[in-house]
Amino acid sequence: MFGISDDPVSLEFYSTRAAVFNVESITVAEVRCACPQLNASGRCDIYPNRPKACRTFKPGSTMCLAAIQRRRPDQVSQILALLK
Ligand code: SF4
Prior knowledge:
Layout: E1 2-3, H1 8-15, E2 19-23, E3 26-30, H2 52-56, H3 62-71, H4 76-83
Antiparallel strand pairs: 1-3, 2-3
The chain binds iron/sulfur cluster.
């Protein structure tokens, strides 16, 4: 999940490739697929060189909490406990 511009071209582009919605007035796109860099242990194989979007996605941020609630609604309390 990442923030996108809400101009019509961006909205059309991302709407055909991802779920587009608002999180606290921020337009975001959520691509529903596993990252090809995840290894069998569920860890990032390129973590030291991960993309900027991954580096700027802060645990516990508004977008992080929205992603948890959308993708793991049954585990919200357990995941939030890990972030403390
Ligand atoms: S940190 Fe980024 S590149 Fe690495 S597994 Fe997660 S989404 Fe993929």
